[in-house]
Amino acid sequence: MVTLDKDDKYAKLRPLFDPVNIRNKQFGIFRHNLAIDEKMVPYFGRHSCKIYGAYIRRMATFFSFIPYAGANRKQEKQKSSVGLEGDVIFELLSAADEQSNYRVFFDNFFSPYKLFKILHLKNFFATGTIHENRTNHCPLEFAKSLTKRGRRCYNSAGERSINLTLMKWNDNAFVTAASNNFSLSPLTIAK
């Protein structure tokens, strides 16, 4: 008889998820550009983790995926220095060899400033959009002054020790991006 972990909301599905992740990681990762994002899978049944569907965090073309189960007691006890989303990224990247210089791309949902520093130390090149309140008080220009300068203007700052560049760009809306892989040059004009 199998006993289910009471803290794991996906305990009944874990025998399906875990072998798929193990098989996907078995032969390694063959791409150097990896995207990490979240995906909503339509689900109409009853489950405590349901948020208008099943929410899955995934890496690239499903090399690895983690179903979202909400905050649980174990995660609350084990507060991480990079937060829950940083932990998700490291769990998804666990199959990636740190010496292979992977480029990792993600959106602002996964990107605190501290995560870019740690990924740099682990030899991962990271690029992603970032919320302004997660930039570690980086001295980027305020939105009002960028608005006065018009569309297509930008402001950047960085930390040379880890080759981190942060940039705020004004288009239809403001976009703030961070990268420990790419710099601002060469600049080109886009339509």
From TrEMBL:
Pfam families: DDE_Tnp_1_7 (PF13843). GO terms for molecular function: sequence-specific DNA binding. Residues 6-180 form the PiggyBac transposable element-derived protein domain. InterPro entries: PGBD, PiggyBac_TE-derived. PANTHER family: DDE_TNP_1_7 DOMAIN-CONTAINING PROTEIN, PHORBOL-ESTER_DAG-TYPE DOMAIN-CONTAINING PROTEIN. This is PiggyBac transposable element-derived protein domain-containing protein. It comes from Aromia moschata.
